[in-house]
Amino acid sequence: MSRLTVNKTYKLYIGGKFPRTESGRYYELKGKKGNLLANVSHGSRKDFRNAVVAARKSFRGWWEANAYLRGQILYRIAEILEGRAEQFEDELRAQGSTPAAARKEVLKAIDLFVHYAGWSDKFQALFSSVNPVASPHFNFSVPEPTGVVAAVAPERSGLLGLSSVIAPIIVGGNSGVVLASQSRPLCSVTLAEVINSSDLPGGVVNILTGMRDELLPHLSSHMDVNALLLCSDDPAEQKLVQGEAVENVKRVRLHPDAPLDESPYHILDFQEIKTTWHPVGV
Amino acid sequence: MPEGPGEGTAGSSAKRTTKKANSHDFVEGDCYAPAPENTDHVSLKRSYDLFIGGKWVRAPKKFETINPATEEVIAEVGEAGPKMVNRAVGAARDAYEKTWSKMPGRERGKYLYRLARLIQERSREFAVVETMDGGKPIRESRDIDLPLVAAHFFYYAGWADKLEYAFPGRKARPLGVAGQIIPWNFPLLMAAWKLAPALAAGNTVVLKPAETTPLTALLLAELIEEADFPPGVVNVITGAGRTGQNLVQHEGIDKVAFTGSTAVGKLIQKTLAGTGKRFTLELGGKAANIIFDDAPINQAVEGIVNGIFFNQGHVCCAGSRLFVQEGLVDTVVRKLKRRMESLVLGDPLDKNTDIGAINSPEQLTRIQGLVDSGREQGAKCWQSSQKIPGKGNWFKPTIFTDCAQSHRIVQEEVFGPVLAVQSFRTPEEALEKANNTPYGLSGGVWTDKGSKIFKITSQLRAGVLWANTFNKFDPSSPFGGYKESGMGREGGLHGLGAYVQLSGR
């Protein structure tokens, strides 16, 4: 008798735990032949709000963790990803990628985490300055994390897109709530499992699945979200997000619906520059 | 903070007397003989036009600008309607495409150096006009505003031919036409903060000064003409909130830079949603000034005074919330009151004056309203005993003690000479209270202990921190806020980033 496969339940990732959506709702993800791939959590506004609470709670600890440690944890994510590469490839193929494209996407995602791991203690040197003020003061400017960042991952890329959004946000000391691709959500739950075993404190990364048009207004208008990254080619979505972001002067970064390239400027997008003055004298 | 789109109306202040200067009845101070700054060398026109495409263009409507210390009309200026805004944006676009963006950076820089020099030469005259139009003490406009204006142009002039070194791994290009909206608290200085980096990076500009303080921007336009800038590189259009609104909404601009109130900043952010236009916002603040019991007390008291009474408190980064460590409260408040009694309030043109005129009757009403709310909500109000001149807009240095976190004077930006005092026991409590505000522009900390300074300054969620000093500015030093105090930086290398688009090399 053939063995019955054990199917995976796809849940959310909030505060270092894998809860089911409080809404109790699911949406069906179908494969190319119409076969059911998974019942994906249809995350709600309440789930999002819970995720923001978890992100805020973890923010200070993560920001104050030293840069060396942040780099090691990102590298750890890459290590674990490498070991589970096949699982991600399977999921990408099930969602329509060719085997070659799936393989390429997974390898790129692994290398992306390695790349950003290295930035953890270097981007500050690139974007800091000691300012030669014309008065007897010592004056310097350094980047600090913006705070809690919400992100809408690229729709067209299930793993690389999601990874390219998460890495620059967290390597700079922010915590984040990420909405995964609606049509390619499988890797998001698996990536959450990788992240969860990487020593990243719970709540620093929270991953939701759900309906993009339903959650977008809530992501944009939440008063305790400091910045938002939207990967989208849709002008209507861009306008909606920028308009809703106004109430707490949220920083909105727009990016096309594609993975972000590897760049320290994506880290800078979620940093604030702080300038400190002190008199010089005896 | 200042006016912007949706606020204020031009031309509403008719029927003012146009008496010549020196007829006002300022109260003489007890300890100082009057030392008024000479105004003979200032030659203002009776009426100003708009500066568009290198020419002075007559606006169909005019409004008067008033000296807030004497209520006398200083001059009338044009009110730019949609047609004039359109013309100015067109002129800026032409200049951008035909000359300014194509010019080698080195040459752009030389124009800015030239302008910086001209400003230095006419510095005293501009300082007097700034004080007449806005009400700030001449000591401040002469020693702080004007030197910093020249320094800003000088600083960014040097960046114009060095953009390729500014952003490692990226190529920097100008954005195009920038619409810049200037507040009334530092009229010429804020114009310099915005113009200098924009022009250095190769953008052209349509600049709108505040309704109540248009004159120094118009004098600057005269200097730009004198410096022989290509026509249209800088256009100056005067008007009220409606003019600014037309500018922000204009399809021909690529970037908006705004300094003003958080409320107007949000309106602008909303207006720009989905347009693809870039923007930077420098908005309100409610800075915490934290004094620990190991602080140098007398130095700290001077810092508190400078922090809140500088420019009558019309400062977005003003230290308007004072946190004193328990045990030190009585001493600090006693010393503070004594120091406040010694401030000279009166004629802004007098070189001894510390507290000048409140910028406008509207602002005076706003300050009075918030002070009334402080009393009603149960905080204890104390004002110094200076006499108030018979004419003009004035407000006495004011402190509130027994304040609660929920009081409006603790939560809202007063933008006047009003300080709210609170106490704390532990550094954690100070940080918790200090960060408990939607604003995040600036902050101060006073202690003799170095490690404490770094702990507190790194945990205050604000863009500019002063340790054992306050309200210091420099063109090389980035300035700007966290949270609802705005986004983007002005000054320094980081300020240059607000006026370029970056692409791969």
Describe the protein.
Chain A is of the alpha/beta class. Chain A has a single domain (26-279), classed as Aldehyde Dehydrogenase, Chain A, domain 1 (3-Layer(aba) Sandwich). Helices cover 43% and strands 20% of the residues of chain A. Chain A contains 10 helices and 10 strands. In chain A, strands 7-6-5-8-9 form a 5-stranded parallel β-sheet, with helices on both faces. In chain A, strands 3-4-10 form a 3-stranded antiparallel β-sheet. In chain A, helix 3 crosses helix 4, helix 3 (85-94) runs antiparallel to helix 7 (186-196) and helix 8 (212-221) packs parallel to helix 9 (235-244). The N and C termini of chain A lie far apart (87 Å). Chain B is of the alpha/beta class and 505 residues long. In chain B, 37% of the residues lie in helices and 18% in strands. Chain A binds chain B through residues 126-127, 129, 131-135, 137, 139, 141, 144, 146-147, 226, 235-236, 238-243, 245-249, 251, 263-265, 272-279, and chain B through 151, 168-170, 262, 265-266, 269-270, 272-274, 281, 283, 438, 453, 457-458, 461-469, 472, 474, 476-480, 482-487, 489, 492-494, 502. Strand 10 (271-279) of chain A pairs parallel with strand 18 of chain B, so a sheet runs across the interface.
